[in-house]
Automatic annotation (TrEMBL):
Its cofactor is Mg(2+). PANTHER family: ALL TRANS-POLYPRENYL-DIPHOSPHATE SYNTHASE PDSS1, GERANYLGERANYL PYROPHOSPHATE SYNTHASE. This is Trans-hexaprenyltranstransferase, component ii. Keywords: Magnesium, Metal-binding, Transferase. Belongs to the FPP/GGPP synthase family. One of its GO terms (molecular function) is metal ion binding. SUPFAM superfamilies: Terpenoid synthases. GO terms for biological process: isoprenoid biosynthetic process. It comes from Lactiplantibacillus fabifermentans DSM 21115. It comes from the Bacteria. The keyword tRNA processing does not apply.
Amino acid sequence: MQATQLHPLWHDYPALQPELQQVMQLMEDNINIADTAITDAILAMIHSGGKLLRPAYCLLFSQFKDTDRQRMIALAASLETLHTATLIHDDILDDAKLRRHQVTIQEQFGKDVAVYAGDYLFVVVFKILAKYSSSFRSIQLNSENMEKILIGEVQQKDRHYHLDMTMDQYKEQIQGKTAELFALSCFLGAYESGQSERFAVRARNAGMAIGMAFQILDDILDYQETSHEIGKPILEDVAEGVYTSPLLFALQTDVRQDLLPLLRLQGNITSQQREQVQALVIEAGGVDQAKQLATDYTNQALKLLKKFPDTPARAMLLQLTQQLLTRHN
């Protein structure tokens, strides 16, 4: 079997590469559907260069105890499948044309195929869980997590173009949208490997902090990088009324009066005006404040991770989490 190409991030983690390659292969092996268009669409998404962070955290937290590696690889695959399904549906709602520098499924194959593709992946998630989970608890947690992701997306939709959105509302939103799945990944890795629920809850808490930092950094990238670097147009979120931490911090400063006329253009804002928003947010220190918020969550995560047993798995968890703070894509 030819090794699956992994994201360059994993070049520094040779011990983890074989299992991540097996995660991707297992995902591919579970795509058994007669419709060629949907199959091609899903496989294109799976191989579009995702970082596989959620399965990686699951696998690493499962390494604190000897356990069935094939079962842990399968559960890690279910997490990445769930993540992929949510991305496909996100792109439909956002009418996104690009993701990971590639044309989205909904743009290339149409919204109907994209809906079917996302729905089918949800089925695959539970098919894998039913086969490999050691208890109903894991299946229950996955279904609860799906609900939290949905609630996070609904909250984001309800707050579109909400100029008085608070930082607490933003944190609540990204917790549901992103951090919950990181938390679940860490919990399942620990719990399904045979650790106590107390140990697994500690893993979940670390994962929640990691997920919060990750999403805040993702939001910062939109204000720091070019369209080519992030694989999609800059400030797409602003045009769609999704306001993130750099902008929210900037709106608390004197540049608010300059930002409001631009933001009130809503979906009619031009590329040039988006660049104006980007410049104003940077000038106001919004990006720097968001970076500090991400640093705070990262430090919280590192503090929690250092309390786990001193093993190669912990060393990789610390290295990976620290590395995410300085990522550029």
